[in-house]
Amino acid sequence: MKQENIYPVETLPRTAREALLGQHAVMIWFTGLSGSGKSTLALALERRLHGEGRLCRVLDGDNIRSGINNNLGFSLDDRHENIRRIAEVGKLFVDTGVITIAAFISPTDRMRELARGIIGEEDFFEIYVDTPLEVCEARDVKGLYKKARAGLIKEFTGVNSDFEVPARPNLTIDTSKVSLDEGVDIIMKAIGGHIAARQITNICKQ
Question: Cα separation of 46 and 102, whole Å?
């Protein structure tokens, strides 16, 4: 529903914040099955970027579903709303000049395209963590696959709910074939041109 009598506040332009930070903001969106290595890659990437003096922020299930989305379940409708809210929060971070890293299963192209549309095509870098189901299930650190196969978790992606292979990821990584450091190296090379500071002039209105 359209909100009446709400007017956007004119703040400093994004370019001003990016100039302050010396970087170009982007949303790096990891998608893949539970146990594929999304969060592990996201956290390792954050550490690498931080070590290079770049400000970044990781968004994942643990820090989103325990707070802003703690009223949502795991039905497709709730998962769609989960992704919508994450994308809106992510857009705020990107507009602040922060390199934002999201690690969510986001199992359908509809969800991923929703996020891409909210954040903006030019700011959305999608990484598909294409680790085979059997490898993900063998890892199963939290015992989620075991519970799903026992019928204790409904609509669990990969067991009783489908995962749609991304139609147009910017990068695909299989964590069963590369080490963590190798994976981060691959990502850093791929995103280098996206996060480099732009030549910025006329930052603020005179």
Answer: 11
Place of tokens 């059997």: 134
For 48, residues 6+ apart whose C-beta sits below 8 A from its C-beta are 184, 188
Helix residue spans in 76-179 (DSSP H) = 76-95, 109-119, 133-139, 144-149
Percentage of the chain lying above the pLDDT 70 cut: 89
Q: Would you list the domain boundaries of the chain?
A: 18-190
* Number of helical H runs and strand E runs in the chain: 8, 5
CA 92 – CA 90 distance, rounded (Å): 5
Q: What is the pTM of this model?
A: 0.88
Are β-strands 171-173 and 124-129 bridged in parallel, bridged antiparallel, or unpaired?
Answer: parallel
**Model confidence over 119-157: pLDDT tens digits?**
999 999 999 999 999 999 999 888 999 999 999 988 899
What lies within 8 Å, CB to CB, of 143 at 6+ separation is: none
d(CA 189, CA 155): 36
User: pLDDT at position 95, please?
Assistant: 95
CA atoms within 13 A on the CB side of 37: 25
Fold of 18-190: Rossmann fold (3.40.50)
Residues belonging to the active site: 106
